[in-house]
Amino acid sequence: MPNGRCKAHGGKSTGPRTPEGLKRSEQMTSSRLADYPFDMVRLACEKCTRKGQYLKSSLMRRFGPDQDIVDLRLILAADCPKVIANRATHLCSACYPDRIGR
Which of 25, 50, 87, 101 is most buried (most C-beta within 10 Å)? Predict the structure, then answer.
Protein backbone atom coordinates (compact mmCIF):
# COMPACT_ATOMS: atom_id res chain seq x y z
CA MET A 1 0.00 0.00 0.00
CA PRO A 2 1.18 3.56 -0.55
CA ASN A 3 1.28 4.22 3.19
CA GLY A 4 3.73 1.35 3.77
CA ARG A 5 1.12 -0.84 5.48
CA CYS A 6 0.29 -4.44 4.61
CA LYS A 7 -2.95 -4.82 2.65
CA ALA A 8 -3.72 -8.08 4.49
CA HIS A 9 -3.28 -7.07 8.14
CA GLY A 10 -2.67 -3.31 8.21
CA GLY A 11 0.69 -3.66 9.98
CA LYS A 12 4.03 -2.40 8.73
CA SER A 13 4.86 -3.94 5.38
CA THR A 14 8.34 -5.43 5.37
CA GLY A 15 8.12 -7.17 2.00
CA PRO A 16 9.51 -10.60 1.14
CA ARG A 17 12.60 -11.67 3.08
CA THR A 18 13.34 -15.30 2.17
CA PRO A 19 15.03 -16.22 -1.13
CA GLU A 20 11.82 -18.00 -2.19
CA GLY A 21 9.70 -14.98 -1.29
CA LEU A 22 12.01 -12.60 -3.15
CA LYS A 23 11.91 -14.80 -6.27
CA ARG A 24 8.12 -15.10 -6.17
CA SER A 25 7.77 -11.34 -5.67
CA GLU A 26 9.96 -10.70 -8.71
CA GLN A 27 7.95 -13.16 -10.79
CA MET A 28 4.65 -11.60 -9.73
CA THR A 29 5.72 -8.13 -10.83
CA SER A 30 7.50 -9.08 -14.05
CA SER A 31 5.58 -8.55 -17.27
CA ARG A 32 7.47 -11.24 -19.27
CA LEU A 33 5.70 -14.49 -20.06
CA ALA A 34 8.85 -16.45 -19.16
CA ASP A 35 8.68 -15.04 -15.61
CA TYR A 36 5.03 -15.98 -15.06
CA PRO A 37 5.18 -18.04 -11.84
CA PHE A 38 2.75 -20.83 -12.76
CA ASP A 39 2.75 -23.58 -15.41
CA MET A 40 -0.90 -22.85 -16.21
CA VAL A 41 -1.84 -19.33 -17.30
CA ARG A 42 -5.44 -18.61 -16.33
CA LEU A 43 -7.51 -15.69 -17.65
CA ALA A 44 -10.88 -14.54 -16.40
CA CYS A 45 -13.09 -11.58 -17.29
CA GLU A 46 -14.26 -9.43 -14.41
CA LYS A 47 -17.35 -8.27 -16.36
CA CYS A 48 -18.66 -11.56 -17.73
CA THR A 49 -18.26 -15.26 -17.05
CA ARG A 50 -15.71 -15.85 -19.81
CA LYS A 51 -12.54 -17.61 -18.66
CA GLY A 52 -9.82 -19.85 -20.01
CA GLN A 53 -6.50 -21.47 -19.24
CA TYR A 54 -3.39 -22.12 -21.29
CA LEU A 55 -0.18 -24.05 -20.73
CA LYS A 56 2.63 -21.55 -20.25
CA SER A 57 4.94 -23.74 -22.36
CA SER A 58 2.49 -23.62 -25.29
CA LEU A 59 2.14 -19.85 -25.04
CA MET A 60 5.93 -19.45 -24.92
CA ARG A 61 6.31 -21.57 -28.07
CA ARG A 62 3.60 -19.56 -29.82
CA PHE A 63 4.47 -16.02 -28.68
CA GLY A 64 8.01 -16.29 -27.30
CA PRO A 65 9.34 -16.05 -23.72
CA ASP A 66 9.71 -12.25 -23.86
CA GLN A 67 6.04 -11.67 -24.72
CA ASP A 68 4.59 -8.98 -22.46
CA ILE A 69 1.71 -10.54 -20.49
CA VAL A 70 -0.36 -7.34 -20.59
CA ASP A 71 -0.29 -7.45 -24.38
CA LEU A 72 -0.82 -11.22 -24.31
CA ARG A 73 -3.99 -10.75 -22.26
CA LEU A 74 -5.38 -8.47 -24.96
CA ILE A 75 -4.33 -10.85 -27.74
CA LEU A 76 -5.98 -13.85 -26.07
CA ALA A 77 -9.19 -11.92 -25.29
CA ALA A 78 -9.42 -10.26 -28.72
CA ASP A 79 -12.17 -12.63 -29.87
CA CYS A 80 -14.50 -11.74 -26.98
CA PRO A 81 -17.99 -11.33 -28.51
CA LYS A 82 -18.87 -8.50 -26.13
CA VAL A 83 -15.80 -6.47 -27.04
CA ILE A 84 -16.33 -7.09 -30.77
CA ALA A 85 -20.02 -6.11 -30.63
CA ASN A 86 -19.56 -3.06 -28.38
CA ARG A 87 -15.99 -1.96 -29.04
CA ALA A 88 -16.72 1.66 -28.03
CA THR A 89 -18.45 0.87 -24.73
CA HIS A 90 -17.19 -2.54 -23.57
CA LEU A 91 -13.52 -2.48 -22.73
CA CYS A 92 -11.85 -5.79 -22.03
CA SER A 93 -11.66 -6.70 -18.34
CA ALA A 94 -9.75 -9.95 -18.73
CA CYS A 95 -7.22 -10.46 -15.96
CA TYR A 96 -4.86 -13.05 -14.52
CA PRO A 97 -6.66 -14.15 -11.32
CA ASP A 98 -3.59 -16.03 -10.05
CA ARG A 99 -1.38 -12.92 -10.04
CA ILE A 100 -1.29 -10.35 -7.28
CA GLY A 101 -2.21 -6.98 -8.67
CA ARG A 102 -3.34 -8.64 -11.92
Answer: 50
pLDDT digits (tens, 9 = 90+) for 43-77: 988 777 888 999 999 999 999 999 998 889 888 88
DSSP labels, 39-82: SEEEEEESSSS-EEEEEHHHHHHHH-TT-BHHHHHHHHTTT-HH
Quickly count helices (H) and strands (E) in the chain.
4, 3
Give CA angle at 47 (83, 37), nearest 5°: 95
Task: State how far the Cα of 33 lies from the Cα of 63, in Å rounded to an integer.
Answer: 9
- End-to-end CA gap in the chain: 15
